Amino acid sequence: MKMQTLFGVLFLLGGIFQAFTAILIYQGHKHYILKIASKKVSMVVYFILSLLLFYLAYVNLV
After folding, report:
1. Whose CA is closest to 22, among 51, 52, 2, 42?
2. CB-side neighbour CA atoms (13 Å) of 4
3. Torsion of CA 36, 41, 45, 47, to 10 degrees
4. Strand, coil or helix: what is 21?
5. Which residue ranges traverse the bilayer (predicted)?
6. Where along the chain do its domains lie?
7. What is the greatest pairwise CA distance in the chain?
8. Cα(16)–Cα(53) distance, rounded to whole angstroms?
């Protein structure tokens, strides 16, 4: 397996987990970032991180 493919898969998994965390925060689960930022800000931060990771996965897998 090429290294670029491995990075693509890892970025894809990271993006899935970040998106899942944003959904959990939306549903009201407690998370450590809620001590620093509000619910809306933390959801946006995790959503942007997941989009960045999905983009990196796309770049590495195509």
Report:
1. 42
2. 5
3. 140
4. helix
5. 6-29, 41-61
6. 3-61
7. 42
8. 9
Q: Scanning the structure block, which residue is given the tokens 């925060």?
A: 25
DSSP annotation of 1 reads -
Other CB atoms within 10 A of residue 28 CB: 7
pLDDT tens readout for residues 42-61 = 999 999 999 999 999 999 99
Within 1-62, strands assigned E span none
- Residue 46: count other Cβ atoms within 10 Å of its Cβ: 22
Give me the amino acid identity at 22: A
Cα–Cα distance for residue pair 54/51, rounded to 1 Å: 5
pTM, two decimals, is 0.87
**CB contact at 8 A, 53 and 11:** yes
